[in-house]
Amino acid sequence: MRRGAAFVTALLPLLLASGCGGGGGGHSGPRPTSQILFDPASPPPFTPGALALVQTGTAQSVSGGSVFVGVTITDTVNIFGADFDLVFDPTYITFVKATQGAFLSASGTVPTQLVTGTQDDGPPPDTKRVVLGIFRTGPAATNRSAVGQQTLVVLEFKANGPAGSPPSALVFDSGLTAPEVISMDGTVVSSGTPQGGTLHIDPL
């Protein structure tokens, strides 16, 4: 049996009410009041051959959100991998994880291996050390040259303090091993002073 116009007319207010209720649910709950961000020591373009950090994105949450920091290399030939340490103050900031950038994997077409570790460098004031290495792997792996600014690794940090918490430097450290970008035969192809920056938690 076909439903008549009267049936549709009677049902329409219920459908509209249901739709309005669903839309309103998306605005419930507390809103973010702060956001963690990263500022490089100096803006791009970066020095050719030097490792440099740059903000690549953010994600909001009620606890201050996350910031994504790319480890980049600019205009450098014969790159096979890189290893380096980064240090920061973990009092109000937490390191979450590292993921590979698109450069060494050629957007996922070449296998790579990313190794990540952390350690506490005490005593207070505390310093958290992030140890990273990323290399191409497999029998077909070869050197790759960076044209312009390319991203080796992306690091995620999250806030664990309120807006206005003391900022933290995020810098390359050579206390255990010097930051290096190398070719397939182990030749160091990076040059210049690696550039870090500052993590800070700002109000929204």
The number of domains: 1
Shape: globular
CATH architecture: Sandwich
Assembly status = single chain
CATH topology name, in short, is Immunoglobulin-like
Radius of gyration: 23 Å
Question: Major sheet, described briefly?
Answer: 7 strands, antiparallel
Structural class designation: mainly beta
Query: What's the helical proportion of residues?
Result: 10-25%
- Strand elements, count: 11
- Mean pLDDT level: 89
Order of helices and strands: HEEEEEEEEEEE
Give me the number of helical elements: 1
Structural summary, described in words:
The chain is mainly beta and 204 residues long. It has a single domain, classed as Immunoglobulin-like (Sandwich). The protein is built from one helix and eleven strands, in the order H-E-E-E-E-E-E-E-E-E-E-E. Strands 1, 4, 6, 7, 9, 10 and 11 form a seven-stranded antiparallel sheet that branches. It has a four-stranded antiparallel sheet with strand order 2-3-8-5, with no helix packed on it. Strand 2 (52-59) and strand 3 form a beta hairpin. The N and C termini lie far apart (57 Å). The model is unreliable at 1-22 (pLDDT under 50).
